[in-house]
Specification:
Number of helices of chain A: 12
Distance between the termini of chain A: 26 Å
Order of helices and strands of chain B: HHEEEHEEEHEHEHEEEEHHEHHHHHH
Number of helices of chain B: 14
Largest sheet of chain A: 7 strands, mixed
Oligomer: heterodimer
Helix content of chain A: 40-55%
Radius of gyration of chain A: 31 Å
Distance between the termini of chain B: 28 Å
Largest sheet of chain B: 7 strands, mixed
Shape of chain A: elongated
């Protein structure tokens, strides 16, 4: 049966080559778009790992002021904590959740080197962002006195750095001078929003006299409004003359951040949706014409006793063989991506995208061939043969 | 004769509405995508309000400190000091404007927060850009010298902060981070996609918190160099490169961390590209990917169009046979097919134009981009129509011509 179908297609290779090119191109477009979607969807389905609804980000910048920065920052956070509207406040490095800033570095344990996003915070961050601890505890002020700098890492970091061991209380090396001790492990921390992949993250306690990291995350009580915000900014501006004071809501910056991913994906989705509709319509038209041309053949087969479903399945079989041809060519291109590790994506993403693209192509060609072949097969043999 | 052909074409189109629809859908889709994309690119890179002189402007917005082995790198905007020393002194330039990169602030009006973009500029900023002043005037030399607390705001901020009233706001004060600034002018706002000129409020660079006194090479300022005419640009670039080459290493090495300094005066497009691509290799890769995506978007409908046309050509065999039997020359048949194709391409083009107008209008009014001013680029429209025509002619006319050379009897038999 299959050989027969191949022969039928091979006999008309001229007209079919165009169809093969079309299906191949559709597959490539679909593969590209699905890779993009699968990548983002997989990230999206992972929980973000912290709460941000009531959290504000107070950004202070010292500008030309260079005196007693550490003390001034200490005073500022104490003042912030003293407001009744504030449940908790924590200092943080400039890479606050959903910001565009990134701080990357790497640590070594047993010759395994892992790069991670570094977040410099104080002991209250877990309260402000409600990050649940999986193992161990969050670092506290008294940890500063120890020999090693206390850090908290996330699950991915533990898996990568310690392979199968538990990372709790292990000492890891950053460089010749600094070593860290892992005091706690959190599950996930996707600081750039839901669409970020679950990357290794490391939280390190701020130095006691730190003067560079001047962001303050503030968790406010529900119902706190802009009036409090205005007061906060005014108080800070009087307390720190010459400094820049800016307040942002994390839930606003999250929306901006995620739109940066969502908008391009949506545009690609819409454009490729139209492209595929176009291809499907064209395929339907071409198959309709091709099958209509073979009415005589259908009539003959029906007269010789072929059933309606037998004729339909012959046409469907033909288009499947044709689609398989194009998909094999397409796969030769597509498998290069996971093999050569293009764009450093997980192999699984490419494989899911390829499988999904193959499935969609088969569905499209089946739908496009189904209606014309059904219609052709239902013609009465006498009518079909009469035309001839 | 022409009307006759068009009449025939119209009848042919109506004979199989479904196939006509497929063809039109393909042409319309391709043209619409192409036009919306180019209109957006034009919005990003073309010369528009308030940077209408982009064609003769150079942007100096990033300073890269690195070492010859490329192991460490640090980059960002320049300091005011650096720009005054090495850019303001360019002799071949007509004017040089210095402005701070974007920064944010908040103002509060009646318990409501207004998020602000702020910018510190020198006075040349107002002559290099073409801001339209709705009220008042820009700050001048005296304001800069006295470090006056004055500000130029946009019409959007005027409405948000002072309310809808139409009375003049010049002379009123606006409280930003506890400092009272006197409003000295109101300009028509610009889209945030023009990052170097976009802001809600503009201050003279001597106003508080601008950090213009900062020493060193890096800071938060960028410069736009305006040439007298666009032909002068290479000369200015050469002069600037000369200035940069003379900077002593001690100024940028940061305790011998870096030994290479890269600062370029680029046109806006080159500058934008260089943000994403560090080397020529990256640039080729980027062009490659963009080209491939475009090829796919354009190629798929084209293959589709060819496919449908080629499949349908047999339909016309008997028609060609009959016409030839009645003595029509091949030339007449050729013209008929050409006009038919031009006709359908133009209908598709008209739909695409309407659709693009609708999409652009939607983008402009949706508020995704404040002050968006997307327009339809006519040259691009004409080029893409031409491309569609070529494909239409290749796929529709060539097989038809071949068929018109058939013997009458054979054509009639098919």
């Amino acid at each position: 049966m299959l050989r027969h179908l191949f022969k039928l297609i091979w006999n008309k290779k001229g007209t079919h080559s165009l169809l093969i090119i079309e299906v191949w191109a559709a597959f490539m477009v679909l593969f590209g778009v699905l890779t993009l979607i699968v990548f983002n969807l997989r990230n999206y389905l992972q929980p973000i790992g912290f709460q941000y609804e009531q959290v504000w980000n107070l950004e202070l910048s010292s500008n030309q002021d260079t005196t007693e920065l550490a003390q001034k920052l200490q005073r500022a956070i104490q003042r912030v904590r003293s407001y009744p509207q504030v449940t908790a406040a924590s200092r943080m490095s400039s890479n606050t959740p959903f910001s565009a800033n990134q701080i990357g570095n790497s640590v070594t344990y047993n010759k395994v080197n892992v790069g991670a996003d570094f977040y410099y915070t104080d002991s209250d961050l877990t309260k402000v962002l409600d990050i649940p601890l999986k193992k161990g505890r969050w670092y506290v002020e008294s940890d500063r006195t120890g020999k090693y700098v206390p850090i908290v890492i996330n699950q991915v970091m533990e898996d990568k750095l310690f392979q199968n061991e538990s990372g709790l209380n292990k000492v890891v090396k950053r460089d010749e001078k600094t070593s860290y001790k892992v005091v706690g492990i959190v599950d996930k921390f996707k600081g750039k929003g839901l669409f970020m992949s679950d990357n290794p993250a490391l939280f390190q306690i701020l130095d006691k006299d730190d003067r560079w990291n001047s962001n303050i995350l503030i968790k406010t009580k529900p119902g706190t409004d802009a009036n409090f915000e205005a007061r906060l900014v005014k108080d800070m501006a009087t307390m720190l003359p010459g400094w820049g004071v800016e307040v942002g809501y994390l839930k606003d910056s999250r929306k901006n951040r995620e739109n940066l991913t969502l908008v391009p994906v949506l545009i690609f989705l819409i454009v490729s949706g139209f492209l595929l509709t176009n291809v499907a319509l064209g395929l339907f038209g071409v198959l309709n014409l091709n099958i209509a041309k073979r009415k005589g053949e259908i009539g003959l087969r029906r007269a010789m006793g072929a059933t309606e479903s037998g004729v339909t399945s012959q046409f469907l079989g033909e288009i499947w063989v044709l689609a398989t041809f194009s998909l094999i060519i397409g796969l030769i291109f597509a498998v290069q991506f996971p093999l050569m590790n293009v764009f450093d994506l997980d192999k699984e993403i490419y494989i899911i995208a390829i499988l999904a693209a193959v499935a969609v192509i088969y569905i499209i060609v089946t739908l496009c061939a189904w209606f014309p072949s059904k219609q052709a097969a239902s013609i009465h043999p006498a009518v079909a043969l009469h035309e001839e | 004769m022409l009307t006759n052909y068009i009449k025939i074409a119209w009848k042919v189109l109506l004979r199989h509405p479904f196939y006509t629809f497929i063809t039109l859908f393909g042409i319309t889709l391709t043209l619409t995508v192409l036009m919306v994309v180019t209109s957006f690119l034009d919005h990003l890179f073309g010369a528009h309000y308030p940077e209408a002189k982009r064609a003769r402007s150079l942007y100096i917005a990033s300073v890269i400190q690195t070492d010859s082995a490329n192991t460490t790198m640090s980059s960002g905007p320049a300091s005011f000091d650096f720009l005054t020393k090495y850019v303001k002194t360019l002799k071949s330039a007509e004017r040089v404007a210095i402005m701070s990169n974007f920064s944010f602030s908040n103002a509060y009006s009646n318990g409501k927060r207004i998020k602000l973009n702020t910018k510190y500029t020198d006075i040349d900023f107002w002559s290099v850009t073409d801001f339209e002043f709705l009220e008042g005037k820009p700050y001048d030399e005296t304001n800069i010298r006295n470090a006056d607390h004055v500000a130029v705001i946009t019409d959007a901020l005027r409405e948000q902060y002072f309310g809808q009233e139409t009375k003049s706001v010049v002379g009123k004060t606006i409280d930003i981070e506890n400092i009272n600034f006197r409003v000295i002018g109101v300009v028509k706002g610009s889209p945030p996609t023009r990052v170097y000129t976009y802001s809600d409020v503009y201050f003279p660079y001597t106003a508080p918190k601008s950090n213009y006194e900062g020493k060193g090479i890096r800071g938060r300022f960028v410069a736009i160099v305006l040439a007298r005419k666009s032909a002068d640009l290479p000369a200015i670039q050469a002069e600037f490169d000369g200035h940069v080459a003379r900077i002593p290493r001690s100024e940028y090495s940061d305790n011998n961390h870096f030994n290479v300094l890269v600062v370029k005066a680029d046109t806006y497009f080159d500058h934008f590209l260089s943000m994403f691509t560090r080397s020529d290799k990256d640039r080729i890769a980027l062009y490659g990917i963009v080209g491939l995506v475009l090829l796919m978007i354009m190629g798929l409908p084209a293959v589709n169009l060819v496919n449908v046309n080629v499949s349908r050509i047999l339909e016309r065999a008997s028609e060609i046979g009959v016409r030839k039997a009645f003595g029509a020359p091949s030339k007449a048949l050729l013209w008929q097919f050409i006009i038919e194709n031009i006709f359908i391409t133009f209908i598709g083009g008209a739909f695409a134009l309407l659709l693009t107008f609708a999409i652009i209008h939607f983008i402009n009014s949706s508020g995704w981009i404040a002050y968006a001013d997307l327009t339809i680029n006519l040259p691009v429209f004409l080029t893409s129509i031409l491309v569609c025509l070529v494909f239409g002619l290749l796929s529709g006319v060539l097989p038809a011509v071949r068929m018109s050379r058939l013997k009458i009897a054979e054509a009639l038999k098919v």
